Amino acid sequence: MTNLIIQVSKYLIIILMALYTFQCFTVFRKRSDEDRDFLFLRQNVLMFFLHFVAFTVLYLEMGELTVLLFYAAQAVYLAAVLILFTKIYRKASRLLINNMCMLITVGFIMITRLSYDQSIKQFQIIAVSTVVALIIPVLIRKLRFITKMYWFYTLVGIGLLALVAIAAQSTNGAKLSFSFGGISLQPSEFVKIIYVFAISGLLKNARDFRRVAIATGLAAIHVLILVVSKDLGSAVIFFVTYLVVLFVATKNPFYVLAGILAGSGAAVGAYFLFSHIRVRVQAWRDPFADYQVGGYQISQSLFSIAAGSWFGTGLYQGSPEAIPYVEQDFMFSAISEELGSIFGICLILVCMSCFIMFVNIAMQLTNRFYRLVAVGLGATYATQVFLTVGGGIKLIPMTGVTLPLVSYGGSSALSTLIMFSIVQGLYMLQRDEEKKNERKIFYQENRPYQEPYGGRDAYPPYGPGGGYGPQGWSGGDRPYGRDGYGRDGYGPDRYGRDGYEPDGYGEDGYGYGPDEYGYGPEEYGQPPYEERTDRRYW
Q1: Bond prior to 397 in cis (omega within 30° of 0)
Q2: CA 294 to centroid of chain Cα atoms
């Protein structure tokens, strides 16, 4: 019976993931808020159902009651994240919130399957990280001086990376992290964010070659320190992120072409200067030639993906633990083996949906610094996903970076949640600006109707001296008085019930009825701004 449930569950999990992924892209075709909200609710249902099915299988295989308790704790956490983000930040992007929770859910499932002890630790780290992430949007919206501190970001970033290169402990030959009381901290994960803020500030006013040269030199220092530390994955992420931000800031493809040529030359030089780079390149070119040493990881990764085929072997039916550091560097291979390549492709599409939202939000931002920050964070996220997946399938040499929010790693999880929260803060900041501009345009368009009746000089902008008074159109202290639109104006003695009363200039204000858009007692009529605005992105 257990085997039957496991076999059925793997197909059900794929169907649920495919339906969720499909809706990540169909949401852009929805025109009304009600349709979009219903779609987001369907995504939440699919996510919780997938989580339930997967942990049912894990419980049947592990046979421990603590697995059910752990599942309940995770379900409560996911529900709390959805409720808190949507209630505290009503203007937040629901699609980004849903995708973030789905990626975390997949991570919970796979890390629990690979190592129960590590999954508990990862859950605790993500729960604490979420509390930090909830604060970030407020800081982005309130602390406007962060746009002017790019020299501070530059110095802090270079200083932290230099400290890592000098004093950090080595892991597999690379200097990556510090350990404090059993907690490992990888500074480069957080420097990625600081670095994006630094280059965004340096390039926001890039009008001449001198400014670009300074920014390029400082970015190169970051990358060189990472290469010396043998943190090749982070070095590639920093390099690609800079090229993307440089192109968006300058619109000059020659700068990007020069950067690519310089990066290619540096890569060739690093190949001959550093032995660890040669080992990784040789393992990538022919992993089976040196199977027992350098090529073992990538070979096992390819075996796992091949064993899973399209539909996977099912949870606990494969052997992903045969890959060294599978829960960190080769999580995509483990997912492809037990959940199938179709599930893996859907996971990539969900990550792509996140990147599209990052770019979409960036293109709507009017502040140049914020726009570059959003683009830079999107490039950082997309590059990290590409390096992880590409390394696992032997598309590129393995770089040792994690799959954001899915792989095991506390520093990676915290930094990724902060990235998502920063973009959410920028999204809400832009919506605040849109609302302010909407009101400003509305006021400017209706000034001719206000000033003949008192307007701003009496009670700005809708004063008792005339204009749009508290009760609608007013000719003085009496809203519908003899000099306004009362009995001698557009009242019932002149334009009665079939004219301009409840459906025209009547008691509901200057509009088209109680449920339409007027200038009545509810400021600008019904419905409120948030409900009647046709948002262009979510």
Answers
A1: no
A2: 35
